[in-house]
Amino acid sequence: MGEELHPTINTKDSLIHTENGGGNGILPSEDTSESNVKYYTLEEIQAHNLSKDTWLIIHDKVYDITSFLEEHPGGEEVLLEQAGSDATESFEDVGHSTDAREMLTQYYVGELHMKDRKKEANKEVFITTSSDSGSSWTTWLIPAVAAAIVGIMYRFYLMEHKSS
Fold first, then answer.
1. Nearest 5°: phi and psi at 156?
2. Ramachandran angles phi, psi of 40, nearest 5°
């Protein structure tokens, strides 16, 4: 179904694909490496968006969940909304259990083609460190000073009302 890709292994053991045949600019529908992993293009996965043929992408892995639609605890509608597309964000937002994550393996059919994957640079990662010792003392000092000032003001307030 289209052009074939021939994998070549470089020194870092990653795949480099070279095209064979005509160059219409469309990636082939699938490609297999030595580990028998099938790679599907986003275009091909998008064609599997029906209730009788439902595929999802979760963390760049492709799953055929057609037989699971009726069993899904949240209903088949939520799965059909994501059918043929990347459902990673929706899957993670719900907070699926480890059992649900393990169940995915039985529906695994392949992986998203490398050219269709989102770049890792787009993901924002916020890391906080506790090496900033300058701000650690302020977390307790400022509230302590504020409490002392409120205490002193309260005491003066009581003394004024007792004398009058």
1. -65, -35
2. -115, 140
